[in-house]
UniProtKB/TrEMBL annotation:
<dbReference type="GO" id="GO:0006950">
    <property type="term" value="P:response to stress"/>
</dbReference>
<dbReference type="InterPro" id="IPR000835">
    <property type="entry name" value="HTH_MarR-typ"/>
</dbReference>
<protein>
    <submittedName>
        <fullName>MarR family transcriptional regulator</fullName>
    </submittedName>
</protein>
<dbReference type="InterPro" id="IPR036390">
    <property type="entry name" value="WH_DNA-bd_sf"/>
</dbReference>
<dbReference type="InterPro" id="IPR036388">
    <property type="entry name" value="WH-like_DNA-bd_sf"/>
</dbReference>
<feature type="domain" description="HTH marR-type">
    <location>
        <begin position="9"/>
        <end position="147"/>
    </location>
</feature>
<dbReference type="Pfam" id="PF01047">
    <property type="entry name" value="MarR"/>
</dbReference>
<dbReference type="GO" id="GO:0003700">
    <property type="term" value="F:DNA-binding transcription factor activity"/>
</dbReference>
<dbReference type="InterPro" id="IPR039422">
    <property type="entry name" value="MarR/SlyA-like"/>
</dbReference>
Length: 169
């Protein structure tokens, strides 16, 4: 019987473990604040992605690619948020099989209620933990990893326009 060599101290486990622990810790801190505004983390992500997209809308398939949701998962979330008046569906004039999710005024208002506290939490627990150069390097690294593992992550959006708008603020 052969012995399989294992290195449980492999730094790759440590690197991914630290990333995962940091993400989970941040997600838990954010989730509590979202709940105060009657939103789940996924609903917040959908609202934010729509608000940051051209014309405040995305095709349902693009919204699925930009989130952690499957196509059927996006349909369920959009249907629920549509019933709550936070987003609405619009038919695609060029493709009858497609539809758009569009953030409503009520969705914008809910997002505006959440953002100040969310930005405070991000500053305290994430951005504020890094020097500006560290943050820039981390964003560059995360973007490279994201593009490799999820090439659809920016589907339906002009990321350079969103980023230049964000950096101008």
């Amino acid at each position: 019987m052969g012995c399989v060599a294992s290195d449980f101290d492999d730094p790759r486990f440590t690197a991914f473990g630290l990333f995962s622990e940091a993400f989970t810790g941040l997600t838990n801190r954010f989730a509590a604040q979202f709940e105060q505004h009657r939103l789940s983390s996924v609903e917040f992500e959908v609202l934010l992605r729509l608000a940051r997209s051209p014309q405040n809308r995305l095709r349902m398939t693009d919204l699925s690619g930009q989130t952690s949701l499957s196509t059927s998962g996006v349909t369920r979330v959009v249907d629920r948020m549509d019933r709550e008046g936070l987003i609405r569906r619009e038919a695609c004039s060029s493709d009858r099989r497609s539809s758009y999710a569009v953030i409503t005024e009520a969705g914008i208002k809910r997002l505006e209620e959440v953002l100040p506290g969310h930005l405070d939490l991000m500053q305290q627990w994430f951005i504020g933990q890094l020097a500006p150069a560290e943050l820039d390097q981390m964003m560059e690294s995360l973007r490279r990893i994201r593009d490799a593992v999820n090439p659809c992550a920016t589907a339906g959006s002009d990321e350079t326009e969103v980023e230049s708008t964000a950096s101008a603020a």
